[in-house]
Amino acid sequence: MLMMLLAACGGDSSEEENTDSSSDESSEETSEGPEIGQQELTQPYVAWARETVSTHMLGALLEMVGYNVELTQVEAGAMWSSVADGSADFHTSAWLPATHASYWEQYSEDITQVKQVLDEAPLALAVPSYMEDVNSIEDLKGNEELGESVDWKVTGIDPGAGIMQNTQEAFEAYGLDNWELTSSSEAAMLTELQAAVENEEPIIVPLWKPHWIFGTMDVKMLEDPQEIYGGAGDQIYTVARNGLEKDAPRAYKVLEQYNENYEMINEMMPKVHAEDQDPAEVVQEYIENNPDQVDKWLEGVPRE
Length: 304
Hints:
By secondary structure, this protein is an alpha/beta fold.
């Protein structure tokens, strides 16, 4: 009887242990997801066509899960260096392997490549389609008529942009000794492009996709036989300072799950850049109209 009593007691104990273990597993499975950690985040960006939309989108998503996100508009060099030195936390504007190759080479030890968000991002010199005799970068070499018509000038954007470095390399690779690359900003370049198109005048600019301008005017990208601009195109990545995954696990999970497609970006870019709508409002409208997509980006992440 004593043996039976002990066995019975032992069986009850085992059942309790199994119940407790099952309870623990259930608790883990229904946990609230990654911890929030550091709640103040800084996201630098350059006011390029896609980057303005994408930065505001990521900022809005992170605010939905409990973070305070400061969006800081800077130049390309500062965008990269601030994440590398830890004064900023992440950006979603890494065009690799070609366009931002020099920045990646300089800062890769201090920056983590989190996620590819867009898999096709071609860059090139571009001209209005009515410039029928100009279809390749090779067509610029020694082209006196074209050179004189545009004062031997390629109208560029901000000097720290990777596409500006690509263009300087293209000048050397294609022997464009007479040509000059001017710098200003994307907005200033687009103003000159639009004015030229309205008057059907020649102009040459560096351009890339995704970009809203292709939806508003007939512009063609020039062939690049030597693939100075990366051939088929770059991919765009979100990158973060080393240590962000540990310091802000919930934010990092969102960064790992965030991605884009052309349909999404092309829907929002014209509203911001052609119609001059507030990017924060444009992004919020997209979030409200696309709850299934938002659920995918925030899967497993608690919202606050």
